[in-house]
Each structure stands twice: as C-alpha cells, then as structure tokens.
C-alpha cells in the first residue's frame, strides 16, 4: 500500500516536471515566433519604406525628366514660332516690295495716272499712226512704181487672200494656213533682204488688211471666229515675222482707235468727213449700227490675240516668247483695262465715248476669263469698279449719251448683266456668257 503511494507520488512528480518542461518549450517557441514576427514586421516595414523611397525618387526623377523635356519642347516651339514669325515678316516684306515694284511698273507702263494715262495712250496711238503714214507715203508708192516688185506683191496677195477666208478653229486648218502664209512671208523676207525694196512690208500690210477685214465681217457676226485668226497671228510672229505685230497694230489703230484705247481729238483743220475717218467710219453715211458692229469685231480680234497663250508654232520644237512684242502680249490686257477705266479732264477719254460699254462687253466676253486668271484680284477690282462705280454708280462718262442714243442704253444693260453675273459667280471667277472657242478643235 505504501509502495503504491510512493509510485503515485513519483509519477505525479514526473508528470509535473514533464509539464513544466513542455511549458518551457512552448514558451520558448512562442517567444521565438514572436521575435520572428517582430523581425519580419520590421523587415517588411524597412522594405516598404525602401520601396516608397525608391518610388518617390523615381517619381521625382520622372518629373525632372518631364520638366526638362517640356522645357526643351517649349524652347523648340518658341524657336519654331520665332522662325515662322521671321519668315512671315520676310515674306510680307518681300510681297510688299514686290507689290510696290509692280505698282511702280504699272504706273510707268500706264504713263502715270489720270490725264497722264490718256496722254500715254495718245502718244502710243500717234506712234502707230506715224507708222501707217510711212507705209502709205513710202512703201506703197515704191511698190506701185516698180513693175517687178508689184508683180511679186500681187502674186503673194493672190496666195494670202483666200487663205484667211478659209480659216476655221480646227488645229489642222490653223496649222495648214499658218504654214502656207509663213511660206509666202519667208520668201518675201528673203527677197527683200537680197534685193532690197519693201516687198516684205507691203505683204505684211496686205495680210493685216485681210485679217482686219475678216474681223469686220466674220468676227463681227460670230465672235468666236476671232480666236483662230489670233492664233495665226501669234504663230506667225513666233515663226520670226515679228514685224507683222507692228504693221498689224498700226492698221488696227487706223481702223479702230479703241484698241489702244484712245478717243482721238479733232483738230481745227478737220471737217466732219475727215474726223469720221479718223474715228474709223468707213464712209460718211455709214450707220451707227454698222460702225458699232465693225468696231466690236475688230476689238474682239485684238483681245483674242492678247489672251492667246503662246504655244510652239508648226515646225518649231521650242517656244521663244521673247519674240512677241508688248502690244500683242497678255500684259496689255491690264494696260488696256486701266486706260479704258481712267477718266480724263479733257472729256474725250474712252470712258466718255458712246462706244465704251459695247467695247467693254467685248473685252469681258473674249478676254475676261483669261484676264481674271492672270491678274486675279487686280482684275476683279477693275470689274467691280466698272460695275459699282461706273455703271450702277452712274459715274461713267458714256452714260450722258444714254438719253439721245438708245444703243448706248442697250450696250450699258448688256455690260451690266455680264458684270452682275460675273460678280455673283463663285469667287468672282466665272464669265457666264464668255465667248466659246478659245481652245483649238482637233
């Protein structure tokens, strides 16, 4: 009994010791785990702080890089803007300089302004009339008095005259007739160079007569026939017959002073018949209607020449536009329009003549599209001034003839309708009733 008790006590003591041992072990493990957790938490906090610090450093570095990029881009844009500003200023200055030079050139070409412009036109007209008098008093008598020269001239005349009447707007026909006439002129030019005389000028004068006669008759009735005639003239000049431009211009002025345009003054020694001849009337009894039709035909022919775009003539591979004199170049479209729109204190400016609205209509119809294309804004200003101030504002001098000359009123209405339709067109760039046939047919 006693031994049993001792064994129980020993067992109890063992179990107590064992319990204490495991309690110590558990406490040690718990302490170690707590320490490990503390260390892990501390490490995690350190790593988190390091991450945040790294992120902050990277953010600041990115901000610094972006700020630098923004600065560089801003400086680049500022430099580009400054360069563009300087470029625009330079272009504006160049354009202004070019405009000033063009204006000075225009003033020089026009002979000034106001009365000076008319004086320049009169001077040019007088020069052409001097040339036609030279042909009449020197060239024609020389040929008439020499049987051999007269024979040469009349042979050439028979070859040229029918050719002009055969002309159509076919490229093939224009080419054929140009080459045929050029052959006659080449032979005459060579004969004149080798043996002297004025055969070449005589034939040019006859050709000019034929061209103008065709304008008075055919073009007056059908305005588009002016274009093939004009093409023949330009091609002949480009083929080397430059003097044709001078002889033709002299004859045009004799027949129709409106090609300059100028209203010739009547001198004290001129009677009515003589003055009517200066003005281009065929005879003392020619009707106003017939006169007006002829003037329209002649000016249509002249304007058609001015608006013809030079192309290489038949048999030529190159185009030498320098051969074309000023008075048959497209630049004269601008000179003519300025002269035709400029009033004069003399009261015999073209703007004051009853024929003015009719001739202006012909200009708009035959050469208006090309003039607008070449001179753009400046020609639009001319047309606008003519419409708003001249016609609608009733400042045009020709309007004073409207009450006693019904044809003036009709011509004014025609011109006004043309310009109103143009003014209402997109970009003011279309002449709705422009004469057709500018381009050659196949």
Description:
With 442 residues, this protein is an all-alpha fold. The protein has two domains: 12-111; 113-428, Serine Threonine Protein Phosphatase 5, Tetratricopeptide repeat. 74% of the residues lie in helices and 0% in strands. The chain has twelve helices and no strands. α5 (199-221) packs across α7 (243-255) and α9 packs across α11 (356-392). The protein is rod-shaped and about 185 Å long.
Work out the count of structural domains.
2
The rounded distance between the terminal residues' Cα atoms is 150 Å
pLDDT average, as an integer?
89
The arrangement of helices and strands along the chain is: HHHHHHHHHHHH
> What structural class is derived from the secondary structure elements?
mainly alpha
Q: CATH superfamily of the largest domain, please?
A: GLE1-like
- Please give the share of residues in helix: over 70%
Strand content: under 5%
Quaternary status: single chain
Subcellular location: Nucleus membrane; Nucleus, Nuclear pore complex
Pfam families: GLE1 (PF07817)
Region (Disordered): 48-112
Keywords: Coiled coil, Membrane, mRNA transport, Nuclear pore complex, Nucleus, Protein transport, Translocation, Transport
Descriptive key words:
442 residues, mainly alpha, Serine Threonine Protein Phosphatase 5, Tetratricopeptide repeat, 2 domains, 12 helices, rod-shaped, nucleus, coiled coil
């Amino acid at each position: 009994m006693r031994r049993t008790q001792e064994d129980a006590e020993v067992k109890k003591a063992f179990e107590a010791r064992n319990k204490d041992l495991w309690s110590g072990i558990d406490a040690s493990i718990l302490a170690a785990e707590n320490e490990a957790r503390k260390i892990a938490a501390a490490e995690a906090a350190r790593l988190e702080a390091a991450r945040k610090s790294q992120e902050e450093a990277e953010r600041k570095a990115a901000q610094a890089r972006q700020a630098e990029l923004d600065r560089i881009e801003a400086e680049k844009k500022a430099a580009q803007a400054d360069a563009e500003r300087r470029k625009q200023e330079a272009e504006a200055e160049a354009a202004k300089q070019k405009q000033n030079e063009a204006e000075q050139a225009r003033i020089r070409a026009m002979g000034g302004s106001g009365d000076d412009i008319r004086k320049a036109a009169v001077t040019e007209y007088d020069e052409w009339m001097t040339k036609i008098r030279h042909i009449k008093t020197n060239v024609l008598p020389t040929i008439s008095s020499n049987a051999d020269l007269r024979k040469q001239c009349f042979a050439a005349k028979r070859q040229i005259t029918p050719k002009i009447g055969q002309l159509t707007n076919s490229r093939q026909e224009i080419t054929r007739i140009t080459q045929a006439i050029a052959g006659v002129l080449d032979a005459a030019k060579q004969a004149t160079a080798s043996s002297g005389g004025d055969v070449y000028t005589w034939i040019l004068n006859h050709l000019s007569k034929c061209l103008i006669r065709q304008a008075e008759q055919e073009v007056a009735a059908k305005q588009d026939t002016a274009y093939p005639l004009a093409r023949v003239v330009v091609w002949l000049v480009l083929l080397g017959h430059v003097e044709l431009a001078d002889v033709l211009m002299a004859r045009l002025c004799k027949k129709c002073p409106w090609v300059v345009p100028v209203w010739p003054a009547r001198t004290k020694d001129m009677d009515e018949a003589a003055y009517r001849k200066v003005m281009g009337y065929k005879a003392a009894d020619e009707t106003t209607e017939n006169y007006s039709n002829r003037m329209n035909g002649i000016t249509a022919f002249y304007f058609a020449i001015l608006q013809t775009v030079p192309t290489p003539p038949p048999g030529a591979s190159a185009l030498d536009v320098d051969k074309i004199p000023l008075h048959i170049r497209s630049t004269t479209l601008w000179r003519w329009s300025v002269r035709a729109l400029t009033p004069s204190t003399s009261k015999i400016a073209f703007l004051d003549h009853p024929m003015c609205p009719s001739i202006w209509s012909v200009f708009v119809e035959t050469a208006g599209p090309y003039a607008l294309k070449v001179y753009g804004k400046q020609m639009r200003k001319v047309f606008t001034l003519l419409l708003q101030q001249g016609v609608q504002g009733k400042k045009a001098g020709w309007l004073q003839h409207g009450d006693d000359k019904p044809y003036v009123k009709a011509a004014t209405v025609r011109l006004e309708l043309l310009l109103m339709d143009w003014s209402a067109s997109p970009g003011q760039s279309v002449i709705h009733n422009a004469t057709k046939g500018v381009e050659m047919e196949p």
